[in-house]
Design goal:
The complex is a heterodimer of chains A (305) and B (831).
Chain A: E1 5-13, E2 18-27, E3 32-37, H1 43-50, E4 58-63, H2 72-78, E5 79-82, H3 94-102, H4 109-119, H5 133-145, E6 151-155, H6 163-178, E7 182-187, H7 190-196, E8 199-204, E9 207-213, H8 214-220, E10 221-228, E11 243-250, E12 253-259, H9 263-271, E13 275-282, H10 285-292, H11 298-304
Parallel strand pairs in A: 3-7, 3-8, 5-6, 6-7
Antiparallel strand pairs in A: 1-2, 1-4, 8-9, 10-12, 10-13, 11-12
Chain B: H1 2-56, H2 66-91, H3 94-100, H4 105-133, H5 159-179, H6 183-207, H7 214-244, H8 263-270, H9 279-289, H10 291-311, H11 319-323, H12 330-343, H13 348-357, H14 362-390, H15 399-402, H16 407-427, H17 431-455, H18 460-476, H19 478-482, H20 489-514, H21 521-533, E1 540-543, H22 563-573, H23 578-581, H24 583-587, E2 593-596, H25 599-621, H26 632-653, H27 658-677, H28 687-695, H29 699-718, H30 722-725, H31 731-734, H32 738-764, H33 771-780, H34 793-796, H35 800-803
Parallel strand pairs in B: 1-2
Helix pairs in contact in B: 1-2, 1-4, 1-17, 2-4, 2-5, 2-6, 2-17, 4-5, 4-7, 5-6, 5-7, 6-7, 9-14, 10-12, 10-14, 12-14, 12-16, 12-17, 14-16, 16-17, 16-18, 17-20, 18-20, 21-29, 25-26, 25-27, 26-27, 26-28, 27-28, 29-32, 32-33
Classes of the chains: A alpha/beta (305), B mainly alpha (831).
Chain lengths: 305, 831
């Protein structure tokens, strides 16, 4: 199946920082893709490039088979986008902004939008400037979804939504994916991502630290806690193909997050002199995220062990 | 299939039209506040002018030219359209949302420009409609010509130049708005760009080598403006496409980083500043958050100041030097924008929010926000004041230097502009509307208060109150403003501010006018009844010829003439026959004539009689002429004057004009003085002496005559019969504010009539009451010291003959109730 979004070695240098460094991704249609990253990791820059607002320093990308730099209008016709702080015309009423936006899409836009607004219990005559933050988010979502886009790009979509609406919204994202649409989600809400995402990517300092189906990633990364008899004892890291993402030492206990850990490796650790106990479990997404975004080179830590 | 295609095409076309309609609606709706604002303000100015014209008439000194006012507003619309439709959308990021919709960049750029051009056309139609409807300007000149005829209308350019220039400003406004994201900077950039055709025209005028006529300059200006439109329009389009398209990636970082962020400055930025007080950080924040804006405003003040310095040093204002005048408005504009910088600039709202969230007192925040702009303003005024002291104003070669306002005047103007602007910046939500509205409102307020000060007698204390009103309003709204709960109370505060600025001068002027006591209606009616009850006059008016020099006399002036010889010649050729003057009066002894003369001519009568008196005295004192037979010619001359004066006096007293009575008073004083000092008792039996004695009136008869003149004048005023009876003027009116003269005059006339009647009554009863004299002094000699005036006791204790004025009336009733009125000649009357 042709990926709906591809990026190839996307690099973006700003004057005093590198926002993206060789980011390559492929997002399959009919999936909910979550892009995770800290503030300043480069998520918004990537979305701006994908939506045709920013030219990258190098690399290429395509959305729905269209190069957003060559045909941004083509891309924007295919997608729906909601930023974390949607800038809507606050002097318009809810109905007016719907009518205005609908005039640029097909006839099905307006009924869908109106149904959505009714579902969110927002009065159409209300001015945008008089809406609460959550209501604004609902209007922005309604506008982004009303033309049933192939790809929905959301930047912190649920910020400002109450738990009930958030839950409904997230379920609707799963439904969208089920109908073959793609959802590109940029979020800090790990629990939400964990609930809806099929595929995730963790972006850290402009680089993709982790990318793959969520279920696979969760299965492949383990927390390993090693108790030793002497805090100063040196222990060799698990052998290849294991990859130590992060490590922390607290007294005689060492905590590692290791990718591609095998039972043999655990057995080997237990057999290591000085190791009194080894406990392992599958890491949570939040733990994976923290592990991937902690600035301690795994190799160096391994050496210290 | 064909049907489907057709339906699809139709749907698409209808849909396209619909999206265009919606797009136009959105853009128009965004422009609506600007259009409504400008239309309201322009109509307001016209209505205010009309009201002032109706209320004050020709006394209005500060008068806005209607036509130019109307022509300026489309230009202001053109200035604001780009920043509003593009700059504001960029700053509020709605342009990003718009760009996400399936609309091409070309369509966005084109639609926005077309909507503004349509708006400009509407503004022009509105302006021309108002000009035509209200008949503004002068119809006899053709505004549609590009040429010198427009100068006659007070309109500096012909309409085609105005219109083309506004289109150029519109396109230029779009260009800077697309190019520069910061709205304030884009407006600053627009100023030189907007004036570039004028600058180019001035450069041509400077270097062409000869002075150009207005019409030629109009053509050159028109040409440069069209050229500007042709050049800037594609640049605007390109700028729009570039802005709406994907942003370029910054260039690859060079190997040698020479960025301005040196390690030292980065270290400095990394150190948290320490402040001793809570106010200091807000001031520090003010300085650092708007560094660029403040620097530009200081630069504008400096440029304007340097232009003034240069203009004060030259005496010719052609070419480049003439262009310097265009730089002068930068100073008030900078003051205005300094006021706006208090509450509106990039990040201002976040700054206020930041302070509010941290519980900073609104009073402290208010003072701190004003600290930097007021410091800049004070420093600028100080520099101006010091420079102004070094400028030679009197006899200066430069007309500009001669007319430089004082530092106090500048302070008042700056205070008005600043106060209004800072209030507008708090009241109006958007920067662009503030930037456009504040200069207009400041200009109106400054103009109105200047007019009130100059023409309505508005005191400086009142000016200070009006200036303080917007400051107090923004101060009182500060807490709510910080909490974003200022609406709708801010509208109430705005109403109070407008009411104070508009109504306080009117109120002060009204109370000033009302402080002059008016005549009670009953009293007025009584006097009118009295005037009407007077028997219908059957008198005929006789003009009294009072010639002087003989027709044969020609005064020859030579530089080295003997003055004594000149005097002698003049004396010999001066001849006036009093009997000839009163011949007609004497021809009908039935008291049916009223003498008509004036104080200027009367001087000759007075002079002639005085000469006769002197000759008579000389004859009496000359031993050689002591013989009664010898001095008969001298006596005969004096007797002739006495006889004629007696006839004239009676005819003057019959007059119903106040000036007749004043002349009669002077003549009577002269007669009495002559009879007392120059007519010996042995001459009492002379018919001329008896004629003169018989003409001398009594206090009662004089009062009756004067009263008759007063009520007749009052009646004539009410009949608006001024040509005949309005023969007096109140000096006090000349000292009153021009705008109030029309309102004060009736009340002052009332006060004048009341004082005259009181004076007539007092003089008839020989009362010592000085109330009426105080009133007349105030009306005729305002500002002088009463006791040293002609109404004061000191002057009145002197002989009337020595103190009365001739040739003019320096104040009515000055001779009334003085000693001469009570001299009794009954004992000298012959039976």
């Amino acid at each position: 199946m042709e990926p709906v979004i591809t990026t190839d070695a996307l690099t973006m240098h700003f004057r005093r920082c590198d926002a993206l460094m060789g980011v390559s991704l492929e997002i399959q249609p009919g999936t909910v893709f979550a892009l995770l990253g800290e503030n300043g990791a480069g998520k918004t820059t990537m979305i701006r490039i994908l939506t045709g607002f920013q030219k990258p320093t190098s690399g290429s990308c395509s959305v729905c088979g269209i190069n957003p730099l060559r045909d941004p209008q083509g891309v924007r016709r295919q997608i729906g986008y909601v930023s974390d702080a949607p800038a809507l015309y606050d002097w318009m009423s809810v109905a007016q902004i719907g009518g205005f936006t609908a005039s640029f899409y097909d006839a099905s836009f307006l009924p869908t939008y109106e149904a959505s607004i009714r579902r969110y219990e927002i009065r159409p005559e209300q001015k945008i400037r008089h809406l609460s933050k959550g209501q604004r988010a609902k209007v922005a979502l309604s506008l982004a979804l009303a033309h049933d886009p192939s790809v929905l790009i959301l930047d912190e979509p649920t910020s400002g939504l109450d738990p009930k609406v958030r839950r409904n919204f997230l379920e609707s994202m799963i439904d969208r994916a089920a109908t073959g649409r793609t959802v590109f989600l940029s979020s800090h809400q790990i629990s939400e991502v964990e609930r809806v995402a099929d595929t995730i990517a963790i972006l850290h300092r402009g680089r993709i630290r982790l990318h793959g189906p969520l279920a696979e990633l969760r299965e492949s990364i383990h927390e390993v806690v090693i108790d030793v008899d002497d805090p100063l004892r040196s222990i060799a890291p698990p052998p290849e193909p294991a990859e130590v993402l992060t490590e922390e030492t607290s007294g005689r206990s060492r905590q590692l997050f290791v990718r591609h850990l095998t039972p043999e490796m655990v057995h080997g650790l237990r057999e290591t002199p000085g190791v009194t106990e080894v406990r392992t479990r599958v890491a949570t997404l939040e733990e994976i995220f923290v592990a991937c975004t902690t600035d301690r080179p795994a190799a160096a830590m391994s050496a210290a062990i | 299939m064909t049907t489907e295609a057709t339906l699809s095409a139709l749907t698409t076309r209808r849909h396209e039209a619909s999206s265009t309609a919606w797009f136009w609606w959105k853009e128009t709706r965004q422009l609506a506040p600007l259009i409504a604002l400008l239309a309201t303000v322009s109509l307001l100015i016209i209505v205010i002018n009309a009201i002032l014209d109706a209320a004050i008439g020709g006394q209005l000194r500060f008068r806005l030219p209607h036509e130019v006012t109307m022509l300026v507003f489309p230009g202001l619309f053109a200035t604001g359209a780009g920043p509003l439709l593009v700059g504001q959308e960029r700053s509020q990021r709605t342009i990003d949302w718009l760009a996400l919709l399936p609309i091409s960049s070309q369509r966005i750029a084109t639609t926005k420009l077309l909507v503004a051009i349509a708006g400009l056309a509407v503004m022009w139609l509105f302006a021309l409609l108002v000009i035509t409807t209200f008949g503004l300007g002068r119809r006899e000149t053709s505004y549609w010509m590009i040429g010198s005829t427009t100068g006659y209308s007070g309109n500096p350019f012909s309409y085609p130049v105005w219109i083309s220039h506004s289109l150029f400003v519109l396109v230029a406004g779009y260009f800077v708005a697309w190019r520069i994201k910061n709205q304030f900077y884009s407006l600053i950039a627009l100023i030189p760009l907007a004036f570039s055709p004028v600058i180019a025209t001035s450069l041509v005028s400077e270097y062409v080598g000869r002075s150009l006529q207005t019409g030629q300059l109009d053509w050159i200006n028109f040409g440069f403006t069209l050229l500007g439109i042709v050049i800037v329009t594609p640049l605007t389009y390109r700028a729009a496409i570039a802005t709406l398209g994907a942003a370029d990636a910054p260039a690859v970082t060079p190997l040698l980083d020479v960025s301005p962020h040196s390690p030292a400055s980065e270290t400095n930025d990394a150190i948290a500043p320490a402040f001793g007080t809570q106010t200091a950080p807000i001031i520090w924040q003010s300085l650092h958050s708007a560094k660029g804006m403040l620097a530009i405003l200081v630069g504008m003040l400096l440029i304007s100041f340097l232009a003034a310095v240069q203009l004060a040093a030259v005496d010719r204002y052609r070419g480049i030097t003439g262009l310097l005048f265009w730089l002068l408005p930068l100073a008030p504009l900078a003051v205005c924008w300094l006021g706006i910088s208090v509450f509106k600039h990039d990040g201002a709202s976040q700054r206020i929010r930041f302070l509010a969230d941290r519980g900073v007192s609104h009073r402290k925040a208010y003072l701190a926000l004003h600290a930097v702009p007021i410091s800049i303003l004070s420093g600028s005024l100080l520099i101006y004041g010091v420079w102004n002291m070094t400028v030679v104003h009197e006899e200066s070669v430069s007309g500009f230097a001669a007319g430089l306002p004082t530092v106090v005047t500048m302070l008042m103007f700056a205070a008005v502009i600043y106060s209004i602007s800072q209030w507008v910046s708090q009241f109006v939500r958007t920067l662009i509307l503030s930037v456009i509205l504040a200069p207009i409102l400041s200009l109106i307020a400054a103009g109105w208060l200047s007019f009130a000060y100059v023409s309505l007698g508005f005191p400086i204390l009142g000016l200070v109150l009006c200036i303080a009103a917007p400051m107090i309003a923004s101060w009182s709204m500060m807490r709510r403003y910080m909490d974003s709960t200022d609406r709708p109370v801010t509208f109430l505060a705005a109403g109070v501010v407008v009411a104070v600025i508009t109504l306080l001068p009117v109120g002060v002027a009204t109370s000033y006018v009302l402080s002059i006591p008016a005549m009670h209606p009953n009293q007025r009616q009584q006097l009118l009844n009295e005037a009407q009850s007077a028997p219908a006059s059957s008198h005929r008016f006789v003009s009294i010829p009072m010639g002087g020099f003989l027709d044969s006399f020609q005064r020859l002036s030579y530089p080295y003439n003997d003055p004594m010889r000149d005097l002698k010649e003049s004396l010999e050729h001066y001849q006036m026959d009093p009997q000839a003057s009163v011949r007609l009066l004497k021809s009908r002894p039935d008291d049916n004539f009223i003498a008509q003369t004036n104080l200027y001519d009367y001087q000759r009568w007075h002079g002639g009689m005085m000469r006769a008196r002197l000759r008579w005295r000389q004859a009496q004192n000359d031993p050689a002429q002591n013989d009664p037979a010898q001095n008969d010619p001298a006596w005969a001359e004096l007797a002739s004057w006495l006889d004629a004066s007696g006839v004239l006096l009676s005819a003057l007293r019959r007059g119903r004009l106040l000036t007749d009575q004043e002349i009669a008073d002077r003549l009577e004083v002269l007669l009495i003085d002559t009879l007392r000092h120059d007519v010996p008792p042995e001459r009492d039996d002379d018919a001329a002496v008896q004629m003169a004695i018989a003409a001398i009136g009594t206090p009662a008869s004089r009062s009756a005559a004067r009263r008759g003149a007063v009520v007749a004048t009052l009646q004539s005023l009410l009949r608006n019969d001024k040509d005949r009876y309005y023969n007096f003027r109140l000096t006090a009116l000349e000292c009153q504010p021009e705008g109030l003269v029309g309102w004060m005059e009736p009340r002052m006339q009332d006060a004048f009539f009341i004082a005259l009647l009181e004076g007539i009554e007092a003089s008839a009863g020989r009362s010592e009451d000085q109330g009426w004299r105080l009133k007349l002094h105030a009306l005729h000699q305002p500002g002088g010291v009463f006791q040293t005036s002609r109404y004061g006791d000191e002057m009145r204790s002197m002989p009337a003959m020595e103190t009365m004025t001739l040739g003019r009336i320096s104040g009515y009733g000055q001779l009334w109730g003085r000693d001469w009125e009570y001299v009794n000649f009954n004992h000298r009357k012959q039976p």
